[in-house]
Amino acid sequence: MTAIKVGIIGAGSAAFSLRLVSDLCKTKGLSGSLVSLMDIDKDRLNAVHMLAMKFAEEFGADLRFETTTNVEDAIKDSSFVVNTALVGGHSYFEQVRKISEKYGYYRGIDSQEFNMVSDYYTISNFNQLKFMHDVAKAIERISPKAWLLQAANPVFELTNLITRTVPINMVGICHGHHGVDHIIEKLGLDAEKVEWQVAGVNHGIWLTKFMYEGKDAYPLIDELLEKEVENFKPTNPFDDQLSPVAKDMYEFYGKMPIGDTVRNGSWKYHYNLETKKKWFGEPWGGVDSELGWKWYQDRQAEIAIAMQKVAKYFQENKNAKLLSKDSLNEIISQTKNDVKEELTKEIYNLLDPQRKSGEQHILLANALLNNEKVDLVLNLPNNGTIPGIPDDVAVEIPVYADKDGIHRYKIDPPLPERIKKMYLYPRIMRMEWALEAFLTGDKKVLEEFLIRDPRTKSYDQVVKVLEEILALPGNEEMRKHYSK
Ligand code: NAD
């Protein structure tokens, strides 16, 4: 058993923090650990703290919690630091998007070819990149042996930035590969008998291997896709793994795009709302359209309020025990029905001793510390894993972890050349441009990003949109950085 300290930065992201806490509660090998919850929003922090303590109590888990608004307190003596903060919050993204659209950049200047995810900003997200870089440097200074588990986006850019410039143990972690589970479930296969691999870069991963009982099972996916795309009707804006866009990308690239990769195709699927609806289905046109993103934001706001209500209930009823589903429903009675249902299901899943959350952070910690070998999909420097991609580019690949560290599986069969040439190389170039801008502070690099954007019609448009974004309150440091 190894009692450690785990720091969670941006812990006010309640649903995420509770997933990690519930995994810790179910991991006997990490019993006795201290979780340091860090956030700048005290209300969110207190709510998460209350709920985390309640979870541990319900499980009878030996965990301790502390709260702090100071990053260094969370890092000090930690063995693992999970960073899930979002500097400026979603409202900053909306401000940038509004300015961008005024100048003709539908869904914002940061929505770029192969990077259409609406909270994955790489051009105008200086404050987020800077904060994450500073946290990594603080780890090097204060807890040089600690692992940084980077959960906040943009995971691709941040993993590259940090692994290249700060000598600490670090991986980028995303749960996008669970798209494979969705395919397995839809096919009605026994997951234990499926052997699969994904490879690529974060939000750009491809199902390179899909075997069932030792035989190639891609033909099953072909059949399933044919059926699914006929009269495709998504159940929610995220429901795109078996959508027309996924099928079209599969046909062009030769392998299935997995998870958020489906959201990250070329402009073919994203020119405007009408195009998005054609490919991602009605009524939303996928989660990254103006309609889909509003659905998601409204839902997140509902969930945050409901979480606060549950936390308040426990604050006022210190001796209250695990709530029945009925009483939980009563506390969050004002919440919309479908959100209420989803939230109740999530909370009860997290409380189910037989299930893990699906997040990989605690599994990795347990494998490294207690030698419980586990297969994971992580972001780390390529170092020859995908031939043709530079060693220092962070790739998202299948690995296993144990007491000796993280070990890469051979990608077999290899990624098709088409995926590398038409998708990964151009996406990698955009990551390099974002890092070139951030590391040099040269505004001309930001300009070049937009000069090469098909939505740009004049240089004047580029200058004006950047000027207005740089003038936003909160962007003082960014403005200074790019005035060198
Ligand atoms: P959110 O705004 O709901 O939560 C982020 C939290 O960060 C808030 O509680 C906020 O108060 C806090 N925060 C802001 N500035 C901070 C600072 N300087 N120090 C400490 N905390 C600070 O955002 P969210 O929707 O939960 O998303 C968080 C991040 O996680 C985003 O980058 C998102 O894209 C990413 N994300 C990653 C994955 C993945 O699998 N890797 C999945 C979903 C979301």
TrEMBL record:
Matches recorded under InterPro entries: Alpha-glycosidase (IPR053487), GH4_Enzyme_sf (IPR053715), Glyco_hydro_4 (IPR001088), Glyco_hydro_4_C (IPR022616), Lactate_DH/Glyco_Ohase_4_C (IPR015955), NAD(P)-bd_dom_sf (IPR036291)
Gene3D superfamilies in the record: AglA-like glucosidase
Annotated Mn(2+) binding sites: C174, H203
Glycosyl hydrolase family 4 C-terminal domain segment(s): 198-456
Residues with site note (Increases basicity of active site Tyr): E113
Cofactor note: Binds 1 NAD(+) per subunit.
Molecular function terms from GO: hydrolase activity, hydrolyzing O-glycosyl compounds; metal ion binding; oxidoreductase activity, acting on the CH-OH group of donors, NAD or NADP as acceptor
Signal peptide: none
One of the GO biological process terms: carbohydrate metabolic process
Keywords: Carbohydrate metabolism, Cobalt, Glycosidase, Hydrolase, Iron, Manganese, Metal-binding, NAD, Nickel
Pfam families registered for this protein in UniProt: Glyco_hydro_4 (PF02056), Glyco_hydro_4C (PF11975)
Positions that bind substrate: N153
Cofactor requirements of the protein: NAD(+); Mn(2+)
Protein family according to the UniProt entry: Belongs to the glycosyl hydrolase 4 family.
NCBIfam families: alpha_gluc_AglA
Record protein name field: Glycoside hydrolase family 4
